[in-house]
Write a structure and sequence with these properties.
single chain, alpha/beta, Nucleotidyltransferase, domain 5, 6-stranded mixed β-sheet, 32 helices, binds adenosine-5'-diphosphate, binds magnesium ion, Hexokinase, cytoplasm, EC 2.7.1.1, glucokinase activity
């Protein structure tokens, strides 16, 4: 009979899934900028952005207003690795005249209690940060500022709505000055909702906790939302805790079909009719009253107590939560129920007792069901934010109903698990979450501020001022001049190698050429067909691996391997026996005496084959061909990749007189006036100079901007002390610099919970391509975490923000340094030409330049700032080292033929 009577209160799983979907829609509405003003569920940003990580420490005070009791707390948090904390609390009554009086009285009372607490705990004159737990809906604009939207539960204080409650508390503190501690020492640092406090307190014990739930006098939930979904707060990075204020769910009518006549009656008799309708179906403040209204009606209809209504049953508030809890203790039989009803003068039969117990069960079960449905919506949202198919998470819970009702917790857990089978949820009880939580939030704030200082300090040396960059440009300019002068050339760190490339293509070049490309990530052999006049080039190429043992073996082995690859390629292309002209792109510093002679000055990047330095690489190649004795080739030119890049772009834009590489290595070439090149005979025309600027600073001239991380990268490299500029600017090293910083920050306990993982110890694990991925604007933080996870780095959300920041600092500095160097080159060219303004094109190649999301932009901006009189056009080269080598070979061949 009762079942039939309360049919509307019994919710099937389908009905609950429907409630869940409705709440999901409410959350979206509350988060959206345009929809928020009319949303019932306010989804309030809390400005809490981080969960505790266990390294918090310090001593804090907290006051807690809005729960069943008003309390003051002293919390001590220790960073002893055991997540331990101490809490001492004192309860104070909240008299009716205070919770229904004026605002000033309320805050004076709060401060009175705090003063008493400090006196009893001997804390007078101690300088302690104060957290304020205030469990009513507040619109926060900062962590320590919040405007009350409206009272809930049994509070109704005048003149507080729409004012900043932190400010009111501060004012009351000041007034108390005389009898109390110096007010300026008692700083209110955080305003916290009890849900947030609960989440933070549980989060201190279980780092997976990202939801806080209250089921007590009121009901509410908070959870960590992605910043990019929070329209009301600036910024897209990281997460922020959202106080859902779900008690107001249904205030716009969204739950009307589920609300019974009893719910309506209860609402009409409440302090805030029409408001907090969801809360009124759930929280302990209302369940007793609901039961009373049901029993009253059933009795009036003669279904209970022989139809006899008692005065007690007619009195509001006569049935309380504690009665329901007692009646639902099934194990204790019907005794409790009988006793309670008797006390209400109802003279129950055994059947009455069974029926009443059943009413209680239906009412409290509905509460758990509704709570579970809304919680399931939050969990699903969290899982979808993380793009996970399955999620493990923890919910921290506080509140009298959940804690004391004999069946409530079990029911709630069971229903949640049924509604979201793809979430593994752990529920943990918060120990005085609302009080400790405010202290926890304050403690986390303290930790973050301290961490921020140290991270800023670590990254400060990577921030280069415009003056510093100007200084770099000037030093580069000095070094360029040194490299060109006869007396200083031998000892110059920027070697300024003549390439004997004197002209750019004129469009008449044609024929079939072979090209080799050695010195980048891949070794390639190419066949290039150039058709004259039409400026069209066709290429066929094959990539060959050069195993590490050959890169770092003997020179003979290296060149034998190269010739082996050429043989394979000729075979593959059906070209065996054809004696083709060959251009050899060899991207290491070579001292050339003619276009087809190049003595290796020294290996760079990842190469270190023996017996090559000081040798002519063309000779070595010729000898290897001879050793193989299978085919012959006409080696016409040895070419640096920068020169190839410049030539390729020059084929299309005659104004291109500079070639830049920002790939594995960093280097530049440009057309210099012959009269400035002292070590080459002749003063007419121009010749391309391969600057080999990667060696800039090898004489110590930029040591003032090198960081300890740069030094570590240098010391761990194949060529310590060499290529210092390259090691700050090129793809081979940027990831390694990042790794060094991450290790340092981890050692300082600022990252990865202070744990240096095995993978972070591995040199080279952090490739430069990861910088590009991590710094991409389109990438959500979650994806950054996935990248780090693939690297074996288990990161929190905060970790990934820091890693992204580190990557940004390193790549930005690289681009700026490169830009400063390039500014020196274009300025020199402008002065060479003696013009007020220079129009010039730079041909660029290199994956760092092409694929990094910000590198090219920052580089260009820097050039513009440091060389304002030059209009520099940047032109991407397509396969400069292959096509360029062929073009240089063609030009050389043409000039050679003309000469003959
Ligand atoms: P190379 O300079 O060796 O001829 P690339 O110009 O292709 O060849 O540069 C390769 C280098 O670029 C790699 O060594 C790596 O350091 C870097 N790199 C690879 N992928 C990326 C990327 N997505 N973003 C930035 N740098 C990258
Ligand atoms: Mg290359």
């Amino acid at each position: 009979q009762v079942d039939r009577y309360l049919y509307h209160m019994r919710l099937s799983d389908d009905a609950l899934l429907d409630v869940m979907a409705r709440f999901q829609a409410e959350m979206v509405k509350g988060l959206g900028r345009d929809t928020n003003p009319t949303a019932a569920v306010k989804m309030l940003p809390t400005f809490v952005r981080s969960l505790p990580d266990g390294s918090e420490k310090g001593e804090f005070l907290a006051v807690d207003l809005g729960g069943s009791q008003f309390r003051a707390h002293q919390v001590k948090v220790f960073d002893d690795g055991k997540q331990s904390s101490q809490l001492e609390s004192k309860f104070y009554p909240t008299p009716k005249e205070v919770i229904e009086g004026s605002g000033a009285e309320l805050f004076d009372y709060v401060v009175d209690c705090l003063a008493d607490f400090m006196e009893t705990k001997n804390l007078k004159h101690k300088k302690l940060p104060l957290g304020f737990t205030f469990s009513f809906p507040c619109k926060q604009t900062k962590l320590e500022e919040g405007f009350l939207l409206g009272w809930t539960k049994h509070f109704k204080v005048r003149g507080v709505q729409d004012t900043d409650v932190v400010n009111s508390l501060r004012k009351a503190l000041k007034k108390h000055k005389a009898s109390f501690v110096p007010a300026e020492d008692l700083e209110v640092l955080a305003l916290v909702n009890d849900t947030v406090g609960t989440m933070m307190t549980c989060g201190y014990d279980d780092p997976r906790c990202e939801v806080g739930l209250i089921i007590g006098t009121g009901t509410n939930a908070c959870y960590m939302e992605d910043m990019r979904h929070i329209d009301l707060v600036e910024g897209d990075e990281g997460r922020m805790c959202i106080n859902t204020e779900w008690g107001a769910f249904g205030d716009d009518g969204a739950l009307d079909d589920l609300r019974t006549e009893f719910d309506q009656e209860l609402d009409l008799g409440s302090l805030n009719p029409g408001k907090q309708l969801f809360e009124k179906m759930i929280s302990s403040l209302h369940l007793g009253e609901l039961v009373r209204l049901i029993l009253l009606k059933m009795t009036k209809e003669g279904l209970l107590f022989n139809g006899k209504v008692s005065t007690a049953l007619l009195t509001k508030g006569k049935i309380e939560m504690k009665h329901i809890c007692a009646m639902e203790k099934y194990k204790e039989g019907l005794g409790n129920t009988k006793e309670i009803l008797t006390e209400l003068n109802l003279f129950p039969t055994e059947e009455d007792c069974i029926a009443v117990q059943h009413v209680c069960t239906i009412v409290s079960f509905r509460s758990a069901n509704l709570c579970a449905a809304a919680l399931a919506a939050i969990l699903t949202r969290l899982r979808e934010n993380k793009k996970l198919l399955r999620m493990r998470t923890t919910v921290g819970i506080d509140g009298g109903l959940y804690k004391t009702h004999p069946q409530y917790a079990k029911r709630l857990h069971k229903v949640v698990r049924r509604l979201v089978p793809n979430c593994d949820v752990r529920f943990i009880l918060s120990e005085s979450g609302s009080g400790k939580g405010a202290a926890m939030v304050t403690a986390v704030g303290y930790r973050l501020a301290a961490q921020r200082k140290r991270i800023d300090a670590a990254l400060a040396p990577f921030l280069l001022s415009l003056d510093t960059l100007r200084e770099v440009k000037n030093k580069m300019r000095t070094e360029l001049e040194y490299g060109l002068k006869r007396e200083t050339q031998a000892s110059a760190s920027v070697k300024m190698l003549p390439t004997y490339v004197c002209g750019t293509p004129d469009g008449t070049e044609k024929g079939k050429f072979l090209a080799l490309d050695l010195g980048g990530t891949n070794f390639r052999v190419l066949l290039v067909k150039i058709r004259s006049g039409r400026r069209s080039v066709r290429m066929y190429n094959k990539i060959f691996a050069i195993p590490l043992e050959i890169m770092q073996g003997t020179g003979e082995e290296l060149f034998d391997h190269i010739v082996q690859c050429i043989a394979d390629f000729l075979e593959y292309m059906g070209l065996k026996g054809a004696r083709l002209p060959l251009g050899f792109t060899f991207s290491f510093p070579c001292r050339q005496a003619s276009i087809d002679k190049g003595t290796l000055v020294g290996w760079t990047k990842g190469f270190k084959a023996t017996d090559c330095e000081g040798e002519d690489v063309v000779d070595m190649l010729r000898e290897a061909i001879k050793r193989r004795n299978e085919f012959d080739l006409d080696i016409v030119a040895v070419v640096n990749d920068t020169v190839g890049t410049m030539m390729t772009c020059g084929y299309e834009d005659p104004n291109c007189e500079i070639g830049l590489i920002a790939g594995t290595g960093s280097n530049v070439c440009y057309m210099e006036d012959m009269k400035n090149i002292e070590i080459v005979e002749g003063n007419e025309g121009k010749m391309c100079i391969n600057t080999e600027w990667g060696g800039f600073g090898d004489n110590g001239c930029i040591d003032n901007i090198r960081t300890k991380y740069d030094k570590e990268v240098d010391e761990g490299s194949l060529n310590p002390g060499k290529q210092r500029y390259e090691k700050m600017t090129s793809g081979m090293y940027l990831g390694e610099i990042v790794r060094q910083i991450l290790i340092d920050l981890t050692k300082q306990g600022l990252l990865f919970r202070g744990q240096i993982s095995e993978s972070l110890r591995k040199r080279g694990i952090f490739e430069t391509k990861f910088l590009s991925q991590i710094e991409s604007d389109r990438l959500a933080l979650l994806q950054v975490r996935l990248i780090l996870q693939q690297l074996g780095l288990d990161s929190t959300c905060e970790d990934s923000i820091i890693v992204k920041e580190v990557c940004g600092a390193v790549s930005r500095r690289a681009a700026q340094l490169c830009g400063a160097g390039l500014a020196a080159i274009v300025e020199k060219k402008r002065e060479n030409q003696g013009v007020e303004r220079l129009q010039i094109t730079v041909g660029v190649d290199g994956t760092l330049y092409k694929l990094h999301p910000h590198f090219s932009r920052v580089l260009q901006e820097t050039v513009k700032q440091l060389a304002p009189q030059c209009d520099v056009t940047f032109m991407l080269s397509e396969d400069g080292s292959g096509k360029g080598a062929a073009l240089i070979t063609a030009v050389a061949k043409r000039l050679h033929n003309v000469g003959q």
